[in-house]
Amino acid sequence: GWCVRAKGRNSCMTASRLLASLFFFCVSTLVAATSDSSPLPLITKLQHEHANRAPTHPQRYHGRLPHRARRLSDSTLTRSNTVPIRLLTNYDSLFEDRAPKYSACFREGEWFRRGLPSVQPHATASGPADRVETCVRGDGEGSSASDGCWGKCLADDVITASGRAKLISVVDLLANDVSKYLAVRPTANLSFTVSDGAYARALTAKGYTPEASCAADCRVLSGVHVADGYCDGGLGWGSDVVLSVTKPPGIAGVAGTGSSCASDQSGRPLWIVLAWHKALSGIESKTTASAAEAERGFVMHEILHGLGFVNSMFNYARDSAGQRKYMI
């Protein structure tokens, strides 16, 4: 449930006006950002393949837990029952001591992993058990990324201290603007659950052993660092959505991707991921203001994808009676 804050109106936009606005917004941001197509993030690919099944983390809104079967028409969004969305930005995955193993590059020549390659990690050394690079770099890279592969970090993949600092400054500046456009029913105390994850079978099918953890799908499938405090320590309280920023090794022609890895009982995204694929050298030498202006379209576009404005969500959207609408 998102409410677009229409200027000068006392209520939220209707679904048709919302979709029209998002269509024009997405077209304009795509033109401003990049014309390159992006491979689907692993979590999004699994959502497409499993009827938009989302990792569920039940939430309370206004102090109570809505029944799963409650009619959507009983929960109409208005200006009086929504507030500007509160994003909690998280940059833990950009730091070597917190980033999940093989998810990011901190030194040239180190091993990285995309997706769930069939070859398991080496038992005692870094990298794959067979020591073979399978990630194609350059043309055709998207296809090997979708299948899962192992590769070695290039200079442009590396997260430097100065590049990380500039990325954080840029995203902080732009993420603050999201609350100007979207409003939601406020979450009472945003928190997540401990489990093997919604897609544990995808791991076992590739030979990986699922491990119960806080927001497991975010950690395993999205390459996000998830502190235990998001499940039992109140780290998410006071927010409606966690926005994690990651910097995976670059993919030729891809600026980045936006996805969600955790949702509430109604399918509303609670944890979204902005994966920045471009080399940080592109923003490192710019001022924060000029870099933010140059990247605004790209960042806002990917955040919108993470918040649910993506084909799988539209494809499996349901009406007030709970019937699938077949929008696309």
Can you offer a commentary on this structure?
Keywords: Signal. This is Leishmanolysin-like peptidase. Residues 1-33 form the signal peptide. It comes from Haptolina brevifila. This protein has 328 residues and is of the alpha+beta class. It folds into 2 domains: 3-101 and 159-315, Roll (Elastase, domain 1), CATH 3.10.170; 111-152, no CATH class. It contains 10 helices and 11 strands. The protein has helices at 15-33, 42-49, 141-147, 161-175, 200-205, 216-222, 229-232, 281-284, 288-306, 311-315, and strands at residues 3-4, 83-84, 87-90, 111-114, 149-152, 182-184, 194-195, 213-214, 241-246, 256-263, 269-276. The strands form 4 sheets. A 4-stranded mixed β-sheet has the order 3-9-11-10, sandwiched between helices. Strands 1-6-2 form a 3-stranded antiparallel β-sheet, with no helix packed on it. A hairpin with a 5-residue loop joins strand 10 (256-263) and strand 11. Helix 4 packs across helix 9 (288-306). The protein is globular, with a radius of gyration of 20 Å. The protein starts with a strand and ends in a 13-residue tail after the last helix. Mean pLDDT is 84; it is low at 13-37 and 68-73.
Task: Summarize the structure in short.
The protein is of the alpha+beta class and 328 residues long. The protein has helices at residues 15-33, 42-49, 141-147, 161-175, 200-205, 216-222, 229-232, 281-284, 288-306, 311-315; strands spanning 3-4, 83-84, 87-90, 111-114, 149-152, 182-184, 194-195, 213-214, 241-246, 256-263, 269-276.
